[in-house]
Structures are given as structure tokens and as C-alpha cells.
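Hey, I was hoping to borrow your eyes for a little while. A protein chain has come my way and I'm curious about its shape. Take your time with it, there's no hurry, and the full record follows here:
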Amino acid sequence: MLWQTSRFDLNLTRPQVMGIVNVTPDSFSDGGQHASTVEALRHCERLLKDGADILDIGGESTRPGSPAVPLDEELARVVPLVHEAVQLGVPVSVDTYKPEVMRAVLDLGADIVNDIWALRRPGALEVVARHPRCGVCLMHMHRDPQTMQSAPMRGDVVPQVLQFLEQAAQNLQGQGVHRNRIALDPGIGFGKTVEQNFALLKRQEALAAAGFPLLLGWSRKSSIGAALQGDAPEPPPPDQRVIGSVAAALMAVERGAHIVRVHDVRETVQALQVLAAVYAAA
């Protein structure tokens, strides 16, 4: 399976590791750590040294309850970094739902639009449809970042998520975008309970059966913290969820994920190398 992007056709025979680069002051796990362009570019270089295949740059936190960021502020955070990152020789993804940001980064040479709103915001679908090659990741989100966890989904989450993603992909193909440009993300933690998130992992093969590349983002999320809490009064903080996050990424790949979006690139790459050795054994 191939994923076509602006500058690269990604061979997904081997799972791809997407390294997270948050240029934000308030992301749930690493907010403020890479806030300047210089610091963020150094982080990009570290992720590549650790084995990242793709860089995913975001200028707005979408953690539960996070406020929206004005357009000018997001552009100021993202554009200077994308300008530098596209020279690093790997696909650059930008995590945004604003069509103006999409247009600006694609003009700079970015390869992938990673949209939590699945191009539902006015003008977003048209930006991607008018671009001749860029890849796009369509994510499922229930409600919006401000309210999604105050009233999460009800019922069997798997068929609801699958139906939404298939419809979003169909809408995009209806605008002339080839299916080879489209990846799908079930949106772990975006308006779902802990149990629903793990149901999506347990039954992930149903999502893979849609025939599109699957991108999964479990890294350090609250569901990992809930699984690790045990009898403790509080779940471990995000930076102490590394092993649980790697385990979830590994299980996602075993169930058909083609791309895993992670903070801890080196650890995830090593785990996937062991998995590859198992698959290669006689």
C-alpha cells in the first residue's frame, strides 16, 4: 500500500513512525518545550535521529477543553518551522483544521494535511482538493475539543467511527482526490470514553477493512494513563506513560495500523524492530 503525499510516495509495507512536534505552549504532554522555531527545529532533528519517518507539526493544542487559537497566532507558530522542516528530507505533516493554514504550509512544500475535523470546516476540503498531490489524514472527532469529553459518544463506537470516516473519504474522492492520497484516523481520545478507545483498538481490523491507510495516535493519552493507574489515587503523568504508549502502538500495528503518531520515537522504533524480527523469523 502507498500513501501519496506532496513530495513522497510512502511505502506502507513497513509501519511508519510519525514524530510529534508541538509548537504550542499548552499541549497536554509537551506544551512549551519546543515553542520557538529554533527549539522546534532541534526537536525535529532529534526525532529524525531517533528514527522518525514523518514529522507532524502542530500549532494549536487540541487536548480536551483547549481554547481555539487565532489564525494569525497559529500561522506565526507554524509557518517559520515548516519553512525549515521541508528541507530535512522527510515528509512534513501539519496538524491543522484551518484552511488558511493548510494553504500556507502546502505552498511552502508541506506534504500532508492532518485534520482533526476531517475537512469539515468551510473551505478546508477545497484547499486539499485543489492541491495536485498532497496527502491528507481524516480524523474522527465527536463534538469539538472544548466539549468532546464533557459529553462523549454513546453506544458501539466502532461502526459509528467507521461510517463517519468512510463518508468523509467518499466526500473527498467526490471532489477528485484519489484514494491513494487519503489516510484515516479513528481519533483516540476525541470524544470517546476509555472503554470506547480500547474497543477501537481491540476491533481495529474493522477499520482497516475500509482499505485506506490507518493512522493511530495513542501516545501518552489519558486512556493510557487510566490503564496504568491501578490502585494509585491518580494516573501517571503523560511523561511516565511511555511504555504503555509503545505497547498500544505495537498492538495498533499488529491490528493493521500503517502509521503511528508518537512522542517517544526511539522507543517506538525499537519495539517495531523487534516485531519485524518476529515476522521475519522462519
